[in-house]
């Protein structure tokens, strides 16, 4: 006769917020396996918009991985952020192909237009400026991801136009 597995101790949900149930659902679907870490962090990011200390701790404890590993994953992949993002996001690819095609100038242009540095969000929480290393679309470099939509062969005018739309015409 096979003995049933002993249920592991799981931490309680951090709060009543029902988004934690969605996060927990992802882990449950994967049998709380350690290799569900990235997918679970994706769910947290989608549900909450970013990964904070509490969520990383909750996921790490639930999946029995070291907190340092969860932090490592969260900081390694460009699609995770540890801070709340603005209403809009502008992600500049600074991989080699994009760099050669002028991505650095586009980044500088965005920094000037928004008045922030890469990695920051405007004080009114309207736009976050992010950078990444190769998004896998080098053939259309330079690549920018505006609000999650990848745009290739971006030039300075297109960049300006897009940022102007967000900065000047956004009705909040
Ligand atoms: S370097 Fe930018 S998409 Fe590859």
Can you give keywords for this protein?
single chain; 172 residues; alpha+beta; 4-stranded mixed beta sheet; 44% helix; elongated; binds FE2/S2 (inorganic) cluster
**In this structure, how is the largest beta sheet organized?**
4 strands, mixed
Kindly estimate the percentage of residues that lie in beta strands according to DSSP. 5-15%
The total strand number stands at 4
Number of helices: 7
Bound molecules: FE2/S2 (inorganic) cluster
Alpha-carbon distance between the two ends: 63 Å
Radius of gyration: 19 Å
The strand order across the widest sheet is 2-1-3-4
What shape does the CA trace take? elongated
- pLDDT under 50 segments (min length 5)? none
**In percent, how helical is the residue content?**
40-55%
Report mean pLDDT, rounded to a whole number.
90
Secondary-structure content class: alpha+beta
Order of helices and strands: HHHHEHHEEEH
Task: Kindly describe this structure.
The chain has 7 helices and 4 strands, in the order H-H-H-H-E-H-H-E-E-E-H. The chain is 44% helix and 10% strand. Helix 1 (19-29) runs antiparallel to helix 2 (37-48) and helix 6 (103-114) runs parallel beside helix 7. 26% of the residues are buried. The chain has helices at 19-29, 37-48, 53-63, 67-76, 96-100, 103-114, 156-169, and strands spanning 88-93, 127-132, 144-146, 149-151. The longest helix has 14 residues, at 156-169. It has a 4-stranded mixed beta sheet. The chain starts with 18 loop residues before the first helix and ends with a helix. By secondary structure, the chain is an alpha+beta fold. The structure holds FE2/S2 (inorganic) cluster (FES). The site of FE2/S2 (inorganic) cluster has 12 residues, from helix 5.
